[in-house]
Amino acid sequence: MYKDVKEYISACQVCARSKSSNQAPQGLLQPLPLPPRPWSHIALDFLTGLPPSKGFTTILTVVDRFSRACHLVSLKPLPSSAETANLLIKHVFRLHGIPSEILSDRGPQFIARVWTEFATHLGAQVSLTSGFRPQTNGQCERLNQELEAMLRCVCSSNPSSWSSELPWMEYAHNSHTFSSTGQSPFEISLGYQPPLFPSDSASPITVPQFLRRVRCTWNQTRLALQRTADHNRRIADQHRRPAPAYAPGDLVWLSSRDIKLRDSSRKFSPRYLGAFPIAAVLSPVSDRLTIPPSMKVHYVFHVSLLKPVVSSPLCPPSDPPPLVRLADRGLGYRVHRILDVRPRGHQFLVDWEGYGPEHRQLGHSHLYRVGPGRVAPVGPSLARLIPHILVLSPCGLILPTNQRLALMEGVNLLSAVGVLALVGLKQTPSRRGLRMSLGWPGKIPGHPDM
């Protein structure tokens, strides 16, 4: 009995969507490969939301993943892809050469076609983090935290002066000794520590001595970085668990933690969405899913955001409701209820019967003919016939009411077959009255007829 109950609950779709996980996150730590030399692998990020300082409000942070050296560039607005490429040429490439890999998040500057073609022509590989996984670009994220702390310490009394202090913060970071390497970024990338005062200058050395010291420094740095990576992996894996061995075609639940859902209450929203099939296994810790376009998120996710779908004959999965066959031989979806309305744009947020919040979609600004279980476009000539609230008839026609109806909170208008419910709508004052329309649901997986 206990085994059957446990199997039933594990396969229950309602439980899988609604219950949060209290287990350790899936996916063991996978450190990035170690760079062979300074400035061969760089990472980029932006620090935004700063107070204006001489017209600057943003900082571009460029980090060398080998030496931990950085360049901080003050910017006015967020740059475009072409402007970001010019900034790298001006502040990085002319000083350190062209890198072999550029790591960044999935900001609009780094997913544009201009940025990809720019890196391809240079021979550099573009590496983008997976969705909602900033830990991949952890060095830039950590640098941004340290930079914010330095800005608060130095510029809290005069916030508009941070752009003048930025060069000194870059110097302080590059001359600081890191525990991961045991040396400063200056010592690793230049072979010596630049003196701050003339009295600190070291004795001159010959060229062969300098080259031997540089090679020794790089070898020591690689060994130190490898020890640090192994240590961090052991510490992190103590609080994680191995991910299941996924394969293309497996069904998984996707965590809704970082996904903006169109719902009235986040507390009552499902904790997992899906189930979605795995399209490809990209690495031991990242998978590509087949998700509906209405979610508007990238389709690559870390395994910590996924959990496998459990099936059992004791609790078979419920199939989506069948398409509705109409009198004109058309097919459509059943509308469960209307969640929100935008009177200014004539849009509705539709909750489709039998589908989760990931399929909810705002309709386009058109007028539609609404039938039992169907949404279909109609001509704009009907616009003049809808100065009042529309009521659905069983045959699917739009009949304007003779009197204007005021919708109050909690009032439902149902069709004779219970297809559509208008819940919680409010009347919008306008000379033309309240005009309502429904958007096309879009293509939903599992229904090739649409």
TrEMBL record:
Family matches, as Pfam families: rve (PF00665), SH3_Tf2-1 (PF24626)
PROSITE patterns named among the record's database cross-references: INTEGRASE (PS50994)
GO biological process per UniProt: DNA integration
Gene3D superfamilies for the chain: Ribonuclease H-like superfamily/Ribonuclease H
Entries under InterPro entries matching the protein: Chromo-like_dom_sf, Integrase_cat-core, Retrovirus_Pol_polyprotein, RNaseH-like_sf, RNaseH_sf, SH3_Tf2-1
Molecular function GO labels: nucleic acid binding
Domain Integrase catalytic: 34-193
PANTHER family, A to Z: INTEGRASE CATALYTIC DOMAIN-CONTAINING PROTEIN (PTHR37984:SF15), PROTEIN CBG26694 (PTHR37984)
Protein's UniProt name: Integrase catalytic domain-containing protein
